[in-house]
Model the fold of this input.
Amino acid sequence: MINGYIHQFGKTCGGVKNLLLTPACNLKSLSWHNRNDYYYAIHFHDSRKLVSCTFSEDAVAYNEQSLCRHGILSVTHTLEFHTDKIDRKSGEFIRELLDNSCCGLAAVITTNNNIRLVIGYSEEHGAERPLRLEKISADTGKAYSDTGHEVIRLCCRDTTKARIFEGPAL
Done:
């Protein structure tokens, strides 16, 4: 057991402001700092297959649910985000996401407090447990003043919590 954890009151993660996605098969390797429990470098086969998305406040949520059953930890990672409207641009983005999700996706998210987490890849499973597209739903709203948008949910199940990435900017 690690001794000395102190809960500090104040701002927490506060949502996600940036999302970097790539097909899981595009990951060449991640360098792991074993003693301090974080990734410090990511290497890709083709850096052109990276998709970087910047979101406004409250547009992205990352959720992690851990369940221990029969002594085995199971962690469900869910990344849910929405486009700002239903239009050609969001349609192209979703088609690109679908086209690149054949082997699953890996992501690095940056929270509003600049904490970066790796999702869809782990030291234990490599890229064998990537994020998969679980659901896309579109809503035009009822009234002309309603904001239409599309909600995209990516999900994966693993045996570890998301790990911190402390390497250089990607």
Remarks:
- The first strand starts at residue 16 and ends at 23.
